[in-house]
Each structure stands twice: as C-alpha cells, then as structure tokens.
Amino acid sequence: MQKLGDFKLPHFFNYPPYFTLQPVRDTREKQVQVWKELILDYCRTQKIFVIGLEEDFPLFSNPVIERSLSHEAREAFISALVSEGRAEWLGKGHRKCLILWHRIQDWADIILRFVKDNGLEDSVITVEEMRSGVECRGTELHGIDRAILMRALRLLEQKGKLAIFKGTSADDEGVKFSM
Hints:
about 180 residues, three-stranded antiparallel beta sheet
C-alpha cells in the first residue's frame, strides 16, 4: 500500500481512472464519494484546514502512476464537500477552501469536552492557549485553525456556555467558561 508520509493511501489512489472525472453518473458519484472521504481523512490526520485548488496539494497528483487531477476534478470534489457542509469556499474565486473535517457544532462539542477533561469550567483561558497551550497538546484542538475555533466559540457563546473577551490584540482574546 502506498503511503504519503505516515498516511496510508487507499487502493484507488493507484488506479488511473480515479484521476479523471468519470462521465457515467453512477461511477462519478462513487468517485466523488471516495475522494471526499480521502480529502477529509487526509486533512484530519495531517491537520490541514485550507486547501488551494491551484496549489501543490499532495493528494491532487500521484507521481507513481503519473496522474494528476484536473482543475475541474479538484473543484468537483471540493464542491461536493461544500454542498455537504464539510468545506467552505474562501472568497468568490473558488481558489481556496476551508476544510471542515469536523463541522462547527462538532468542534464546539470537542471544546466542551476539552474544558471538562481539563477542569476548566468557570475558568478563563486565552484563545491562543486553546490552540497551542500545554493543555491542548495531543488533542484535536492543538493547531486548530483560528477562524474555525472562533466560530465554534461564538456558537458556544450563543448557547450561554462561555463569554468571549476582546483583548488589545488577537493574541490576548480570552474565553470565560460557565458550565
């Protein structure tokens, strides 16, 4: 089985037709499904939050079989993720995409579990500590994209689980949990 670093690639990755958009609807639906799963799984394990369609993203080509996805195929697979709420286009040009390997509500649940597991109920913590502090090392929150984290925190704020405090800079924004 071929690997990309420590990531095991699925068998279809070595099958040239999967790098060409398939014209038959049923076949294309299966193709789109396996690519969506591959993109989400790879981004989750590698902690990748943004994909540029015109950038050198490792999954978009396979040098072993000398195949690359066309721009049309890349956009089709990412658009399928967008339509399911698993990705969002950044800007109107559809050149970059925010990958949501967890939906915002799922990130909010992960934050609540993190707070409970670390005894942070009724505590104040900075946003940066949630992304890169000692407590978050080894958790899914470590290295989380700031925009995704802030959206999840705002969702929890709307639900009355926390309050976000503005600091003098983005680095010292704080969160007070009330659970």
